[in-house]
Fold each of these.
Amino acid sequence: MIYFSHRGANKKRVQNTGAAFALAHAQGARCFELDVHLLKDGHLAVHHDYSLLSTAGKDEKLGALSSLDLKKYPLINPFSEEQVFVPLLEEILPIVSPELQLLNIEIKNDNNVYPGIEKAIVKTLAFFPDLLPRILFSSFDYGTLERLRVIWPGAQVGLLTRNFDVNQAIGLGAKSVHINQTRFTSQIAEICHKNRLKMYVYTVNDLAVAAQLQRDGADGIFTDCIDLFLEK
């Protein structure tokens, strides 16, 4: 069973920040998940939502901001008085890279809102060649994964889906299928395994639920509480 630290140790640090990933790594995490958006200057921001409204109280769209603009918007920090900001992917990679086993980068690009994000990803990761075999890309936007595979045939991809279709995963040459725990079934896991696909389930923060998912065929989970699972 693989345990992905979902947006870092986000129950104790602000999600998707350097502090969250540093704590998760210190807690023993070696598999991580994060989200990326394309900024207007070509850099990749690590953040879940398309806007800063829920995280910084400002309805600013990430696609309209530059990497310098990010420093204008401190994120809401319920854990301490320290100011934290949306980081760049290039800032997070060195934090998670020591002893890294697997990094799932979810590409936020619904309806191709960020044309060219695939090329920006390839450009950024060219500076981290040692990490490439340990990176798995996923996206709810199927076209994004198709384009990524065209410009980078060696990219490992996972089908992130709300409506499971094994033929989509096969068509992508995917390594895995990622699905919400409410949509997971043992039958889906069985189909995945018959087609040499791993089955990863999100977001699981309960030991008993994780154990049942494993019995039903899940190969890994995404969790907000990585310490809970690594303390076993």
Amino acid sequence: MKLPSEFESRTLEWMGEDTYRALESALQAEPPVSIRVNRAKCGKELSGEPVPWASSGIYLPRRPSFTFDPLFHAGCYYVQEASSMFVEQVLRTYVTAPVVMLDLCAAPGGKSTHARSLLPEGSLLVANEVMRNRSQVLAENLIKWGDSGVVVTNNDPADFTSLTALFDVVLTDVPCSGEGMFRKDPVAVDEWSVDNVLLCRQRQRRILADVWPALKPGGLLIYSTCTYNKEEDEENVAWIAGELGAEVLKVDVRPEWSITGNMARQDFPVYRFLPHQTKGEGFFLAALRKHETGCDGGTSIGCDDKMKEKRQKGNDVRAVSVPDGVKDWLRQAETFLFETKDSKVTAFPRVRAAEYALLRRSLKILHAGVTLGELKGKNLIPDHSLAMSTLLNKDMFPCAELTYEQAVAYLRKEAVTLDTSVPRGYVLLTFQGVPLGFAKNIGNRANNLYPQEWRIRSGYLPEERSFVW
């Protein structure tokens, strides 16, 4: 790989000869492969080298056929770059009680699914993506992950400005020049330029300024990029602290992790992952605490009252009549509010109903809570979101275990023939005991209810089956 000459000269100048040459050499090597296991869905033990800063992260010895692994599509694990899993250390250090968290630039969903696994019970995660096509991928990945305490939105950061002091935590993994992805993405190398670095820095500041009012006074901001340069990294952290008003926080790290600190000769803590030192791609993170100033820049007195008033005004989520028995499709049904709207029957955690009502008055929501099913005439067709939910009550549906070949056929949206012992009607299909989705068994075949847009499009089937488990 030929690196841009300007990248080489400017990075060498500020990193120094030894560090840059070691980085340059590492960028010519194959990147490691890592996943994060969904412990809420899969209790199987997985051998492999642990990612030291992530409790469910594992390095794999080689890249398996993720596309053709049914457990991948079932949400049992997420393929995520190891360095970015460091967000776990910030959340474990500073989030100890239920919170409302925003992941502002969330697609494709690695950090969102990770955060949702770590947040205390009773928390709500809002995962947002401004690009429409990417927001659909984000919704898919969070639905597969299976946690109900999630809202997925498709909005510009400026749309959050009016949600004053709503969020306890805001994660901004901002769009950047992508230097840390050079060895995985040749397009990032081709598109790199100094002008783009400076353009990204300004865009990042605009995003931060837009979302800043939505973060509570005293709230936690996690700022991250996948780039190396100080303009988008340390200089932006200094700008947040000085211009927006925040304290840069320390996160404890172990020496053996070989995480690099501040390289811009400034005295605040940051965490930079360089691939010649840490096993992962280039990544940068800083944690900041918003000053205890008020909603409009004054004192913090009155902010909670204003937010409480907004929640009360927006609290239009009510228990609505739903078809008989449908509530039993979820375990812990008493903790949900159920609603029928536009033929969809949904359930949302009761404890966060007021925040949800406020969000849907202001934002474009793609997914929230659990979609249980769709009404068509007298029938309620169970939704794939229900099949993926970790709170699905499997006892409410007959189950049929699929072979590997049947599972792949199902995930391709092909017709599946079930054993004659399987009763007719809606059936939950499983692979190795894990739900894959629903089908309607009509006897000679089963109508496939897997989402059309999620199907495996490749007709290829690997001769050698190399999977995570």
Amino acid sequence: MDQTVVDLLAGNGEHAEEFGDRFDDLQHAQHPGAVSVCCSDSRVLQDALWGNETPGEVFTVGNIGNRVVQRTTAGEAVSGDVLYPIAHTETDTAIVVGHTGCGAVTATYEAVTGDLSDAPGIEHCVDILKPRIEPGIEILPDGLDRETAVNHLVEYNVDRQVDFLLDSHDVPEAATVVGAVYDFQDVYSDHRGEVHVINVDGERDVAALRDTHSEVDDRIRRLWTY
């Protein structure tokens, strides 16, 4: 067998030894406190970034571009994997987590500003991101290098995903929707691996957010106010 699989199974063995008794109260139901929607980048370890080692605490969703949107025959809708915990497990908090240097945002940026040709499945994902990111490209500050532009658009994409959840009739008004960026490239601070809050229920103003959420004011940052 491929050595990578062998190594992964060995790691799973250690996991099973450590975690076995942590599932005793979760055999037949789950009631996670939050659904976390992250990019499926291998550098973004969803449970680990929250310091979570407790099964049942976080309903994790991963896809390229941390999208909450899917296309259906009836039009765009909140992705089922994001909506499921909100609709069926009493989860009342959704957190959309982008990350610095996002490849999906970069690919969308390149598709809008140049010519991107990729496999159909990847192009499908980029096409869903395009209408969210393209307006942000048009209002980017002048003089940004490519890397900085992408990180600005990471925030813009998170904001648009938050907006989609807030605008959906399928998401209860009482639900809390948070937008954040995971930084492992020293963009927001020199603490690699920190999550920085950029949006809460559609509010993007840093001063207002810090005033309202003073208990986490040191974790509220944005690169871009528009």
